[in-house]
UniProtKB/TrEMBL annotation:
Pfam families, A to Z: adh_short_C2
The UniProt record lists the keyword Oxidoreductase: yes
Keywords per UniProt: Oxidoreductase
Molecular function terms from GO: oxidoreductase activity, acting on the CH-OH group of donors, NAD or NADP as acceptor
Keyword Electron transport: no
Native source species: Mucilaginibacter pedocola
Protein name: Short-chain dehydrogenase
Protein family (similarity comment): Belongs to the short-chain dehydrogenases/reductases (SDR) family.
């Protein structure tokens, strides 16, 4: 089990206060890493890090702001001396404040350009900047693991039928921004893996499936019926895969996309 140990390693998780982000942090801490809980909400990040234990820290970080990332990087190196693991988890997944307008606004013909650009800024540019700032430290050390969180929708197109209710009415459409940006993340992983392979930095993608989180019953049923395991994921279903990619258990793995989706993309 030493292969999976992260004892003495420093791990940064962006978007750390999200549903899966918190589980990523908990798994890394359990494996022995010193976790940097990075999120735009500094107060909540500090509180969550404190709850994890005294060896962990919370930072307010904007993944779209290079100066914010550089400040964080300086502080992390001063405290821990190294940066060993980066989990690029921060992302926007469209939510529509007015459910009555969700169908109209999410349709491709009407989808707002500013929403598309905002997703690109966080989901793609944010991954680029975090990798540039923190990954450069790893390259200088000659070791490190970067894990870019993508999605099944970075691999296959959205099935719009799962968003139809019991009466067959389309409640909304999966908009173009998420699939486009997550597809970009997968190929950015390949670029970085090729670029930094000779520096000892491994770069892999983790592509999760949908997580059950108080969605409408019709959606949960529709989604579950498309998976080979017959269910949506639970928030902790990705912890084992994350530790595998972060640790020496995957020492000969780079440029890969680890798909953990209950069989959604298998057929």
């Amino acid at each position: 089990m030493e292969l999976f140990s992260l004892k003495g390693k420093t791990a940064i998780v962006t978007g750390a206060l999200g549903l899966i982000g918190k589980k990523h942090c908990e798994a890394l801490a359990l494996a022995g890493a010193q976790v940097v809980v990075a999120d735009v909400n500094k107060e909540a990040a500090v509180a969550f890090a404190t709850a994890l234990g005294s060896e962990h820290i919370g930072l307010g970080v904007d993944v779209t702001d290079k100066a914010s990332l550089e400040t964080a990087c300086t502080g992390i190196k001063a405290r821990y001396g190294s940066i060993d693991i980066l989990v690029n988890n921060a992302a926007i997944n469209d939510m529509f404040e007015n459910p009555a307008m969700a169908k109209e606004l999410s349709a491709f013909e009407n989808y707002p350009l500013d929403a598309f650009q905002k997703s690109i800024n966080v989901n793609v540019t944010g991954v680029f900047l975090c990798s540039q700032v923190f990954g450069a430290v790893m390259a200088g050390q000659g070791t490190g693991s970067i894990i870019n969180v993508a999605s099944t929708y970075g691999i296959v197109g959205p099935d719009q039928s799962i968003y139809r209710d019991e009466q067959g009415q389309q409640t909304f459409y999966k908009s173009p921004a998420y699939p486009v940006t997550k597809g970009a993340v997968i190929n950015f992983t390949r670029f970085l893996a090729a670029y930094w392979g000779n520096k000892g930095v491994r770069v892999n993608t983790l592509s999760p499936g949908g997580v059950e989180n108080n969605q409408n019953e019709f959606f949960v049923n529709n989604y579950s019926a498309k998976t080979l395991l017959g269910r949506m994921a639970q928030p902790n279903d990705y912890q084992g895969a994350l530790i595998f990619l972060a640790s020496d258990a995957s020492a000969y793995m780079t440029g890969a996309n680890l798909i953990v989706d209950g069989g959604w993309t298998a057929i």
